[in-house]
Amino acid sequence: MRMTNKSLKEYLSFLYTDQRELIDFIDTVTTNHSFFFRENKSIEYIIQQFNLSPEKEKKEFKIWCAACSTGDEPYSVAIQLKDLGLSFSILATDISHTVLETAARGIYRMDKMQNVPLPLLHRFFQQGTGKYKGQIKVRKEISRHIVFKKFNLISDPAPQIQFDAILCRNVMIYFDFQTSEKVIHKLYHALAPKGYFAIGNAESLMNMNHNYIPVKKIPSLYIK
Ligand SMILES: C[S@@+](CC[C@H](N)C(=O)[O-])C[C@H]1O[C@@H](n2cnc3c(N)ncnc32)[C@H](O)[C@@H]1O
After folding, report:
1. 129 to each of 54, 65, 117, 133, 136, how far by Cα in Å?
2. First to last CA, the chain
3. What is the Å distance from ligand 1's center to 122 Cα?
4. Considering the entire predicted model, what is its pTM?
5. 30 Cβ below 6 A of ligand 1
6. Residue of the nearest CA to atom 27 in ligand 1?
7. Ligand 1 in contact with 96 (CB < 6 A)?
8. 38, 45, 112, 132: which one has the fewest Cβ atoms less than 10 Å from its Cβ?
9. Other CB atoms within 10 A of residue 186 CB
10. In angstroms, what is the span from residue 68 Cα to ligand 1's centroid?
11. Does the 40-223 domain belong in CATH 3.40.50.150?
């Protein structure tokens, strides 16, 4: 606001008319911190359950990463599913245009990879050389399973897809109670029966009115 020299009212209408400013505004007010294999216990559990499913040979598992930031989370899920030879597709969404651009590029600094098991790192990433030294790129065999799309959890209607798992992690921590409650209801309807719902370890559904059932011994994981 200071840079544009506008009052609050003027700045708000400016946001409605100027796409570039809206992108900059969203980048300023959102926190995009993420890294590969972050809070992986719940993801590991979901994938194990998919792998035990009697339908796994003929089924394509559908996953929605509903606040995917720079892509670290959907790529982490994808490489673990691929490693087991499961068939899957991932919808990865975020409100921020800028993080989605980074996600679609799939190029990362090595320090984001500290939790990735070495065999998976070697198998599913290409080491950068020359000007890309110190960076790493996700291989096409992984990225082709993921569609990145802009989506506002608060205002956009949920896709008409029944997902086997929805990850909505480390984003509701920035929402107020009522907003979080609305979002978890919206996501519930996009989840297939017995589908999994994961939130961040620092988040909670406590005191919210909902029908998710907690998964025993796995914090932050629920089932429909
Ligand atoms: C801290 S990151 C979490 C990334 C990842 N889920 C993880 O756990 O590492 C939070 C992300 O939520 C996104 N976000 C914030 N508000 C949102 C909204 N209303 N709809 C969709 N995404 C939103 C931000 O742009 C940011 O990329």
Report:
1. 43, 30, 21, 4, 9
2. 43
3. 28
4. 0.95
5. yes
6. 69
7. yes
8. 132
9. 16
10. 6
11. yes
- Ordered by start, the domain boundaries in the chain are 1-30, 40-223
Tens of pLDDT, residue by residue, the chain (224 residues): 888 899 999 999 999 999 899 988 988 888 899 999 999 999 999 999 999 999 999 999 999 999 999 999 999 999 999 999 999 999 999 999 999 999 999 999 999 999 999 999 999 999 999 988 999 999 999 999 999 999 999 999 999 999 999 999 999 999 999 999 999 999 999 999 999 999 999 999 999 999 999 999 999 999 99
> Pairing state of beta strands 135-138 and 107-109?
antiparallel
- Residue whose CA is closest, atom 10 of ligand 1? 171
Span from the CA of 171 to the centroid of ligand 1 (angstroms): 5
